[in-house]
Amino acid sequence: MISGFWFLMIIISLLVLPLLYGMLRDFFGGNTNRFYGDELNKQRKTKREKAYDKAHEKTAKYYERGGNGGGGDL
Question: What is the pLDDT of residues 39-70, one digit of tens each?
């Protein structure tokens, strides 16, 4: 009969071996199924960035017209 210690070691090894296999595979470059979501999220703008861009467009149009409403003469 298996002693309690060896039974516990078998249970722990069954839990740890898949994790160890995955870490070694990733370390040596065997993991080709990576998620590159960060590359996709770089193109997405936050609400703050969208509001900044909208305000910047308004001020750019304002200054293209002449800025302070005057005729441009000092």
Answer: 666 677 788 888 888 888 888 877 777 656 55
Q: How far apart are CA 53 and CA 59, in angstroms?
A: 10
Q: How far apart are CA 74 and CA 72, in angstroms?
A: 7
For the chain, the first-to-last Cα distance in angstroms comes to: 102
Q: For residues 66 and 72, is the Cβ–Cβ distance under 8 A?
A: yes
Question: Which segments of the chain does DSSP mark as H helices, in order?
Answer: 4-27, 37-41, 47-65
Give the C-alpha separation, 26 to 20, whole Å.
Answer: 10
Find all residues with CB under 8 Å of 72, minimum gap 6, and list them. 66
